[in-house]
From TrEMBL:
Domain GST N-terminal: 15-106
Domain GST C-terminal residues, every copy: 111-237
The protein, known as: Glutathione S-transferase
PROSITE patterns: GST_CTER, GST_NTER
Amino acid sequence: MDEQVEDPTKHLSSDKLLFLNSPECPFAQRTWIALIEKNVLYSKVDINLRNASGQYAPDNKPEWFLRLNPNGKVPVLAYEEERTIHQIYESNICNEFLEDYQPSPSLLPPHPAVRARARIIIARFSEAFVPAFYRLLLRQDSEGQQQAAQALSTELHWLEAHFDSMGPYFMGTEFSLVDISLLPFFLRFGVLQHYRGFSLPSECSKLAAWVQEVSKRASVQETSVSAKPELSYEKYLVWVYERYADGSAKSTSAADFKD
Ligand SMILES: N[C@@H](CCC(=O)N[C@@H](CS)C(=O)NCC(=O)O)C(=O)O
């Protein structure tokens, strides 16, 4: 890592969550959106995952960061309560934690079976869509790219078929953890278009309308920020994924999804 931030775990408190973020990370964006939607008090620390030349530096993470998340990944939430430090990581688990930590406003449907359905959608998205998204960028051979594009297309059609018939949100009238879990990857579709010529299939009209609608939310706007002032958010995202698309990314995420 290039610039190290001062150890923020020295100042943990019980009434303010520490949130370790990276502006380029879709998983961290999930938790950032949930924090804003929940009106939780938090202090955000941006972790620079790269060195001075813009390459990922997975072996150069501060010791306090690895103590909070031994996987060395953002997002992380942490707070101190009665001299115990609580540390939470994995974006979907961070967001479920926020739902428990501050139940109102709720980001899950009230009916137990519908809640379970929301979780099924999030789990499938994480297991199938997210790996296909990264693989489409990471694979340098056309056969691998075609397989990833096919897998992504299957997942998009599955999502379109499972979208609430009325909308405007994925589960119906209420914005939920399903919208939050999915959206950061849809915001990055311009990257797939730029590097691989892949775009949302025209049949996925409910998803297309949903992206337009949800992108207007204040929490989404606030978290869609370019960390390079000279670049628009869209161009910043294209820059972020350059190392993935040319096969040179050394990040742990690249290693997670390569094969
Ligand atoms: N499954 C994790 C994935 C988190 C993740 O991969 N974060 C990336 C940034 S987008 C990271 O921190 N990578 C560290 C590295 O590449 O060294 C989650 O949902 O939180």
